[in-house]
Structures are given as structure tokens and as C-alpha cells.
């Protein structure tokens, strides 16, 4: 497992890669540093997401779930809905306008978790925030 530093909305987090999603981890780590915009989810509850449209990371489903815990980060490789990354900051059931989805649990926040709700609420009330993923 390796560590990834995540900076968003004035907060810094450290996430640990998940051994049960080796293909997703390897493909994502090849992108680092990775910069995007984080917006609030529409159907999934207390979470923020990065919509990626038709973009493909080149992975399929592994270690996938619809119910991320606080601090879990999932990658959805596309199919029924657009490709995306979702990060849970509270109660979350991963869904889209097409219904429930499952994403690859590839990162878990292990430091800074106490600031996840503040980030989620900032994204909700203030709008999209820049997010950067980089090797810790």
C-alpha cells in the first residue's frame, strides 16, 4: 500500500491505497499528480464527486461497493452512468439518475478524516473546489 496526499478546499488529507483494487490503484497512480474539480453529489447522499464523462482509466470492476464508508474513495469505470470518482464524507449510497451504482474502492482517507464533513459542506454551499491527488 502507498499513501496519496489529497488537497481540496483548503484541507489536506492522506489516503492509503487499497490492496483489493490493484488495477485501479496502479492506473490511478500513473496519473499523479492528478488535478480536477470536486462537486457535490446529486443522488448519493453525503459525498463529493469528480464527473469524468466518457473518459476511461482502462480498468474494470474490482473491490466494488455501493456503500462507501466515511473517507472511502471509489472509482466508477463507466457503463450505466458516466465515469467518476466519489468520496464519501457521511452517509452515502452510490447512485446516479440511472439508479444504484458500484465503484472500485481504491483509496481510504487515513489522516484528516475529521475535516471531511467541513469539505463536503464547503462544496455543497460554496460550489466546486479544486482537488489535487499526489504521492505523499
UniProtKB/TrEMBL annotation:
Alphabetical list of InterPro entries matching this protein: Cyclophilin-like_dom_sf, DUF3830
Pfam families listed in its UniProt record: DUF3830 (PF12903)
Top-rank taxon: Bacteria
Name of the featured protein: Cyclophilin-like superfamily protein
Taxonomic lineage of the native organism: Bacteria, Pseudomonadati, Pseudomonadota, Gammaproteobacteria, Oceanospirillales
Amino acid at each position: 500500500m502507498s499513501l496519496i496526499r489529497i488537497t481540496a478546499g483548503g484541507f489536506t488529507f492522506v489516503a492509503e491505497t487499497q490492496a483489493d483494487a490493484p488495477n485501479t490503484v496502479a492506473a490511478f497512480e500513473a496519473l499523479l499528480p492528478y488535478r480536477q474539480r470536486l462537486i457535490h453529489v446529486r443522488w448519493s447522499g453525503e459525498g463529493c464527486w469528480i464527473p469524468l464523462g466518457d473518459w476511461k482509466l482502462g480498468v474494470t470492476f474490482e473491490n466494488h461497493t455501493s456503500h462507501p464508508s466515511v473517507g472511502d474513495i471509489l472509482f466508477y469505470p463507466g457503463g450505466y452512468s458516466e465515469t467518476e470518482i466519489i468520496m464519501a464524507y457521511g452517509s452515502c449510497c452510490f447512485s446516479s439518475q440511472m439508479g444504484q451504482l458500484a465503484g472500485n474502492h481504491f483509496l481510504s482517507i487515513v489522516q484528516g478524516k475529521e475535516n471531511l464533513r467541513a469539505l463536503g459542506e464547503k462544496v455543497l454551499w460554496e460550489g466546486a473546489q479544486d482537488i489535487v491527488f499526489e504521492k505523499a
